[in-house]
């Protein structure tokens, strides 16, 4: 996903912009660029295909002076990744430069109209159309008004920043559908796609709302209007992020750092919400919607990827503990399949980034159906957190690695607390039963730590299987989503094909895949279908399949049948996703590293998919 960074203030802009782009690299990109206005009012634009380091090499011998600039990492949507299509884009007059994250859906019709008026285009991007549309409008009004008026003709999503020759102290920005944060410093301003480039520079931020245009001018307060010409008061917030949350803290990759953060993260997710002393759970963010949840015809999770896997775990937890019907929908399917949703349903959008386009669209559809829409998000101030009626933040901190790890465990923790709260309200659990579940959940952070401390064998397994072409992950009940998640981790960072399956489904086809070259990961932790899983292991073994078994500490049977055994602590079976997932994250990580893959920024992937 594209990233934008902009700066105007008393410091040199270039180093701030480059550092900001590097902090946004985790979003995934294929080219980068920067535009600077120097003291002689010269507009210098440098762009390079590839990485930010390639841009730095290109600009190294050029004039990068100036106290105002905009910069961009591009994840190609319209036009291949190359220097011409990279941002920033200049208007025909060469007096304005623009960067853009999003998609202008009606750019072709706008381009045709502009060509009739004599505009020419160097690139095949929608962005270059937008800057020239603004130039076309600007003949009669100033840049702020021109942006506001032009955006009324635009269909699509955008987070844009524009600078103009002759205005060395002013940047105009706007957003719709793509995120944008403005940092307010001491006689300086920062603009970025999310807060990571701003961390350590200022604590005061404004999360720009959809369809807002912002004038950022040195010596003045932020000035905001909607594209409908209604002034808006900036809502200044305190940035909750800090520097060490976006540094690697001695780990080789963000992903491993975030895997090892999970004991603390799960504790943070529970803080102030799980109360073993009073045998209760309190979820303040949704307290006004507990009745709708309790009496919902259906709770419907809408999500993508790992968040969808967490939602599947959530469905098992809520149905088992609170006896409320739950559906789990891929947001991308939900938004187009004409689902039956009524005002008696409660839709819960689950998203780490809070910017996933399909999930945002699913929210819109659910709202049109009259359902209450809640959110479970990680990024504060994100689009999904603002589009929902209420929600619960996971408090997992910034997740930089593209492969979700701590987001998954924090989401599952929220869902476990939600299930326990609903069970309490509905009376589906006796007090004593609830106490056991709450007390065991309270012990999970330490059990995750134990799992991390005892994961040494996983690296040996990774070395053994790093060159396989396929892997199967099998689990039953709440370990089925664990199988899906383990397979996704391996696929997305090591590029080995892997499939997660309900273990019992093997005999309905996939067992044909089993031979001596097919490693099979079984999540064989204790639960009431353990014996069935043992039979499934036997079926694979008898066909020479290689078995990697994730087992509970006191397991006796599965461990004797497996080629490799990974132990996790004993716990209640419904909490096994919080424990069994950990070694599978580590397995995927080591295999990817051994294969020389880019663990934090896997090929073709973006941290948040803000386009369809
Ligand atoms: C998971 O490792 C992937 N990064 C991806 O599947 C991700 O979970 C999905 O794109 C949803 O993202 P979100 O949680 O930010 O909405």
Quantity of strands, as a count: 27
Shape: globular
Mean pLDDT across all amino acids: 94
Portion in helices: 25-40%
Distance between the termini: 11 Å
Largest sheet features: 8 strands, antiparallel
Q: DSSP strand (E) fraction?
A: 15-25%
Radius of gyration over alpha carbons?
A: 25 Å
Name the ligand types.
Answer: 2-deoxy-2-amino glucitol-6-phosphate
Side-by-side strand order of the widest sheet: 3-2-4-1-10-9-11-15
Low-confidence stretches: none
Output the structural class.
alpha/beta
Number of helices: 19
Summarize this, please?
The chain is an alpha/beta fold and 612 residues long. 35% of the residues lie in helices and 23% in strands.
Q: Would you mind describing this structure in some detail?
A:
With 612 residues, the chain is α/β, with parallel strands linked by helices. It contains 19 helices and 27 strands. The strands form five sheets. An eight-stranded antiparallel sheet has the order 3-2-4-1-10-9-11-15, covered by helices on one side. The chain is globular. The N and C termini lie close together (11 Å). The mean pLDDT is 94. 2-deoxy-2-amino glucitol-6-phosphate binds at residues 304-307, 351-353, 356, 359, 402-404, 492, 608-609.
């Amino acid at each position: 996903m594209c990233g934008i960074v902009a700066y105007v203030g008393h410091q040199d802009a270039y180093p701030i912009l480059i550092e900001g782009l590097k902090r946004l690299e985790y979003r995934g990109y294929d080219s980068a660029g920067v535009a600077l206005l120097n003291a002689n009012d010269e507009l210098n634009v440098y762009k390079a295909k590839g990485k930010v380091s390639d841009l730095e090499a290109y600009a190294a011998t050029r004039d990068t002076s100036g106290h105002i600039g905009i910069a961009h990492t591009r994840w190609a949507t319209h036009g291949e990744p190359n220097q011409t299509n990279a941002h920033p884009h200049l208007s025909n007059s060469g007096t304005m430069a623009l960067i853009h994250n999003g998609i202008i859906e009606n750019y072709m019709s706008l381009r045709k109209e502009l060509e009739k008026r004599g505009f020419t285009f160097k690139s095949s991007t929608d962005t270059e159309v937008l800057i020239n549309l603004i130039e076309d409008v600007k003949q009669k009004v100033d840049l702020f008004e021109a942006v506001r008026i032009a955006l009324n003709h635009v269909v699509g999503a955008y987070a844009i920043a524009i600078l103009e020759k002759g205005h060395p102290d002013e940047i105009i920005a706007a957003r719709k559908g793509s995120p944008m944060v403005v940092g307010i410093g001491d006689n300086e301003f920062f603009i970025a796609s999310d807060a990571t480039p701003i961390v350590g520079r200022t604590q005061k931020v404004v999360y720009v709302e959809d369809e807002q245009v912002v004038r950022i001018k040195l010596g003045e307060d932020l000035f905001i209007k909607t594209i409908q010409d209604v002034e808006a008061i900036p809502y200044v917030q305190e940035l909750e992020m800090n520097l060490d949350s976006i540094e690697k803290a001695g780990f080789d990759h963000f992903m491993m750092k975030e895997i090892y953060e999970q004991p603390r993260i799960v504790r943070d997710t529970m803080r102030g919400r799980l109360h073993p002393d009073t045998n209760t759970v309190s979820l303040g963010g949704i307290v006004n919607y507990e009745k709708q949840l309790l009496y919902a015809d259906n709770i419907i999770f809408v999500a993508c990827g790992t968040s969808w896997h967490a939602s599947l775990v959530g469905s098992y937890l809520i149905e088992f503990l609170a006896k409320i019907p739950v559906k789990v929908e891929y947001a991308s399917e939900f938004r187009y399949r004409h689902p039956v949703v009524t005002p008696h349903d409660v839709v819960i959008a689950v998203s780490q980034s809070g910017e996933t386009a399909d999930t945002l669209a699913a929210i819109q559809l659910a709202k049109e159906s009259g359902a209450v829409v809640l959110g479970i998000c990680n990024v504060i101030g994100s689009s999904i957190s603002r589009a929902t009626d209420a929600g619960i933040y996971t408090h997992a901190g910034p997740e930089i690695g593209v492969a979700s790890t701590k987001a998954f465990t924090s989401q599952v923790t929220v869902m476990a607390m939600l299930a326990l709260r609903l069970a309490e309200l509905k009376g589906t659990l006796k007090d004593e039963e609830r106490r056991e579940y709450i007390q065991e959940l309270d012990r999970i952070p330490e059990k995750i730590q134990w799992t991390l401390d005892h994961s040494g064998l996983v690296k040996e397994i990774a070395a053994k299987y790093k060159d396989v072409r396929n892997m199967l992950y099998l689990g039953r009940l709440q370990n089925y989503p664990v199988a899906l998640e383990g397979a996704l981790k391996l696929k997305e960072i090591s590029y080995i094909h892997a499939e997660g399956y309900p273990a019992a489904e093997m005999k309905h086809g996939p067992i044909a895949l089993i031979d001596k070259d097919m490693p099979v990961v079984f999540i064989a932790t204790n639960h009431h279908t353990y014996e069935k899983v043992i039979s499934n292991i036997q079926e694979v073994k008898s066909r020479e399949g290689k078995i990697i078994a994730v087992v509970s500490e006191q397991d006796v049977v599965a461990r004797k049948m497996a080629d490799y055994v990974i132990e996790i602590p004993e716990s209640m079976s419904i909490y096994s996703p919080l424990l069994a997932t950990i070694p599978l994250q580590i397995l995927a990580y080591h295999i990817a590293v051994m294969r020389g893959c880019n663990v934090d920024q896997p090929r073709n992937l973006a941290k948040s998919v803000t386009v369809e």
